[in-house]
Amino acid sequence: MKKSLLLFVAMVTGMVANAQYENAKQVFNSPKLQEAVKTHKLVAILPFEVKMTYKKQPRDFDLETNREKEREKAYSIQSSIYTFLLRKASKYTVEFQDVEKTNVLLKKAGMTDKLGEFTKDEIAKALNVDAVIAGKFEAEQSKSEAGAIVTTVLFGGMGSKTGSGALTMMVNDGPSGDLLWRFFKSMNDDVFSSSDELIDRMMRKVSRNFPYTK
């Protein structure tokens, strides 16, 4: 009985901590934001910078394979954001450049996989857009998927989190390159998460603060 009570208390404490972590967010609005967005008509979404780490590195960990996963996630998040915004296009004051066109133009400009070497105004000029949406996703896996599935079966979903992450989304003005808006959100990641689910969760939080919302 005592062990069961201690286990229950531990699970509840973990759930409360996870909920607090999930709710952590920060929003920055530049004093130039309101005037700048009035001039924006076309906005590009860039592949996100992705960093995936492990609390306990897997035995079969391969650095190159992990880098490829990060690259795939970068484009997956880009695509998910574009899809989300496209579904709600009527709610926004701007249009968003097709991400396939964005990536082709980045390749022609020699910027693919080297975005950190260019300023945001240089990128916007290459894409011929008024602003760019960029960001970073950092995730740490703390439990194997198999372990999380076992926990889900035993406890009905409590404690099935496999890791945690933080997602930052930014809007930079095209002509000046200035940072106009920044949104940071920490979140939990489970075995059933995908880029679409990740972005859907984040964008629901962003919606009230997103600078292009009518």
Describe the model.
With 214 residues, this protein is α/β, with parallel strands linked by helices. It has a single domain, classed as Rossmann fold (3-Layer(aba) Sandwich), CATH 3.40.50. The protein is 43% helix and 25% strand. It contains 7 helices and 7 strands, in the order αβαββαβααβαββα. Helix 3 (63-87) packs across helix 7 (195-206). It is globular and about 50 Å long. Residues 1-19 form the signal peptide. Keywords: Signal. This is DUF4136 domain-containing protein.
Summarize the structure.
By secondary structure, the protein is of the alpha/beta class. It has helices at 2-23, 33-37, 63-87, 99-108, 120-127, 145-155, 195-206, and strands at residues 25-29, 42-45, 49-54, 95-96, 131-141, 161-173, 179-190.
Features:
single chain; 214 residues; alpha/beta; Rossmann fold; seven-stranded mixed beta sheet; 7 helices; 25% strand; disordered N terminus
